[in-house]
Amino acid sequence: MRALEPVWLTFLSGSDIEQLPIDDSEVLDAVERGLRAQGHGQTVVEPRVHLTPDPAFNGHFNVLRGYVAPIGLAGVKIVGDYVDNYRSGLPSEMALLNLFDPRTGMPVAVVDATALTEMRTGALTALGARHLARPDSKVLGHIGARATSYWNVRLLDRIFDLTEIRVHSRRPESRRAFADRLERDLGKPVVVTPDWRSCVEGADIVVEASRLERPEPLLRTEWITPGALVVPYGTMSAVEPDLTDIMDKIVVDDWGQARSGPFGALRAHVDSGRLSEANLHAELCEIVVGDRPGRESPDETILFWHRGLSLSDIALGAVLLEKAGEHGLGQRVRFS
Fold it and tell me: 49-91 pLDDT, tens per residue?
């Protein structure tokens, strides 16, 4: 019997990724590539599943699975979501992405996907806004200061060159540190607000990325300005039931994911029938490839709910892997 050739995979650590010279446009382009593949029917995306080891731990794991044909990779990402990790000095979300050859099932890479998750989430928020916010949007109201929040603001500013950025989060120390980081990196002032209302009222773009322990309607529908884009994606809902009633269009990243699972900003809206396939305007990928219109009028008030796509993880993971090879980063590990 002929001996099998060794099988090798690449391990890309968080330290490796920190050293990669990747700019904002490359992050946006990678995630958009995944959306285009989805829009052209060249992907398989399975609704995420969850594992809650013990309710006492106040956290759970999300498992995301997908395949992107034009990239030639399948992937499975496991990301923890633990809201109390700040007490231990740990990120609330830590992740690993496993990439595979879809033709043989052979492993290609294992990637520290913590920073990747932050970047691709911000890119999905920003790409949604590119198609759904008013082009002249200048005021952002952002709730939440977790790691994905930074990339939301950074990439939204990249597209819109914002003139007013307001931020709020549950803990005063986290919102101040978040604002300081943004001011340093973006080179413009950031307003720290004392409450939700002063953060979002009158904003052109409202992003709700809170980390609630249980659903609580803290984002009031009456605060939303006509013509605004609202992007809620917290694990636990922070919106009022009638938020969807004022929307001219509701867009999601993937309806299969939106309508399943116990978590998500509009979980109650789907479960009650307030949001259904009948009143859903589109998936974002349909708008990206031109099959459905995005914003058609300055007066439209639009909601974009994204839960996060495995396709985005795979598309950005592929770019990080390629750049790591070009710069001699990552470890070659023998699999068998």
Answer: 999 999 999 899 999 999 999 999 999 999 998 988 888 888 8
Class in CATH terms, 121-308: alpha beta
Whether CATH 3.30.1780.10 fits 8-116+311-334? yes
Helices marked H in 133-253 = 147-160, 172-186, 196-200
* DSSP strand pairing (43-51 vs 59-68): antiparallel
* Beta carbons within 10 angstroms of residue 127's beta carbon: 25
pTM of the complete model: 0.93
pLDDT digits (tens, 9 = 90+) for 84-129: 888 888 888 899 999 999 999 999 999 999 999 999 999 999 999 9
